[in-house]
Amino acid sequence: MKYDIREFLKYVSFSILGMLGLSFYILIDTYFVANRLGTEGIAALNLALPVYNLLHGCGLMTGIGGAAKYSIYKGQKNENAKITFTNSVYFALILAIIFVLTGVFFSEKISVLLGADKVLFPMTNIYMKVILVFSPAFLFNNVLINYVRNDGSPKLCTVAMISGSLMNVLLDYVFMYPMKLGMFGAVLATGFSPLTSISILSLHFIKKKNNFIFVKTKPQIKLMLSQASLGLSSLVSEVSSGVAIIVFNFIFLKFLGNTGVAAYAI
User: Are residues 33 and 42 in contact, defined by beta-carbon separation less than 8 angstroms?
Assistant: First the structure.
């Protein structure tokens, strides 16, 4: 029983540290945008945020659902455990294609629908377009984080999350101050964050303790849907936050304009 409690505390503590790192980089990211781009920058960032909520929610749904299914099969010594990770990758790839195509062809229309006026449109659009183009990195990062954690390496996950957050902060400064790339620099730094995390998480594949690999198998829609059902609550939570942000944005735009949205964003 003592071992179980220690194991539980280890997983919880590492998860909390990872989330603190994420919160830190969001705070610093907001500071850099406010400092370099002012009220309009913060307002534009908040208008585009619901799209990131949807992207992050889909990543959590795929990663948490797939890793949960993997753990269940692994505990049952079911042969399907070997193909679960591969199908999670397939699922993430399908979602990534949808997000990338949306960013390339529809970011302008979505920016307008979310309330961007002539002042905010350029920054809202560039943030949304780039974040959606980087969607494969965000989705695969969520898949790897959850699988690696469930495969007995919560410490590596925490290191990856914190390293990605620190890289975001560093690149935020480089891209927005010396290079003066504006909103493009801010979103580019955010896009490199999951890439840093993925590079660290990939170390798990060379460990002897690694129990999941990519295997040659056809996509199984039934298995993907089963994974999605297990991670659906995470998607609903993120989408709910995104919907709330959209509603508040429209209210503030109507009564207080861009400055109201910026104050709410902070």
Answer: yes
